[in-house]
Amino acid sequence: RFEKCNYLSYIVSFSEGYLYQMMSGCEYSDSSMTDMVYSWSYVFNKQEYVHYDTKIKKYVGKTACGVKTAETWNKDKDRMAGLLASVDRYCKYNMGLYLSFATDRKIPPAVRVRSMKPFSSQHQTMLVCNAFGFYPREIKVTWLRNGVKVTADVSSSELLHDGDWTYQIHSYLELTPQSGDSYTCRVEHSSLTEAIEKKWGEFKLPH
Asked: What topology does it adopt in the membrane (predicted)?
């Protein structure tokens, strides 16, 4: 399902206590971008006085001064043609770059399994499965004991953002090992053709 997306840019100017802002935006709700709308808002001292978008194809004044400004700008044929052309030249071009980076980008996770001290005293040890450096964010981490899915005594960290548009997550399994048991962390992600499985040996208890 494709959600509505906005792409905004701002220009801000201060002069002798006055604040002037110009905000342009691109909005669409379909990956084909056929419903792309390009808009401009002009704001003086926090009050919008002129607005434009490609749905109505003209400037609309929001104040008395804005009405006069809109009338003047609407008569400028080159200006109006340039705004319509910006749907392709500015909006679709920039969103295409964004989608190729953010939507089509896939980076597989690196996976590591290690042991550490358990959170509680009810179990002898705890296994940690670290999955990191992956994109997009959706990922599934499962624990297996002797090939069978384990759900008891399993917890997980929140999905964590790295500083490079990738993510990491950590899954924990507290356990009291039995002789002959082997544990596997299974990680499924859209970047992988098959799941990654990292096995944590076979427990051998002393006789």
From this structure: Single-pass type I membrane protein
Strand stretches in the chain, DSSP E: 5-15, 18-28, 37-44, 47-53, 58-61, 110-116, 125-134, 139-145, 148-150, 154-156, 160-161, 167-175, 182-189, 196-202
The token duo for 139 is 């990922």
What DSSP designation does 190 have? T
**Residue 33: both structure tokens together:** 């971008």
Write down all domains in the chain, each with its CATH number in brackets: 5-102 (3.10.320.10), 110-202 (2.60.40.10)
- pTM as predicted: 0.55
Give the position of tokens 């790295």.
162
Over its length of 207 residues, how does the chain's per-residue pLDDT go in tens digits? 344 455 556 566 666 778 888 888 888 887 788 889 999 999 988 899 999 999 999 999 999 999 999 999 999 999 999 999 999 988 888 888 777 766 678 899 999 999 888 877 777 889 999 999 999 999 999 999 999 999 999 999 999 998 888 999 999 999 888 888 899 999 999 999 999 999 986 444 444
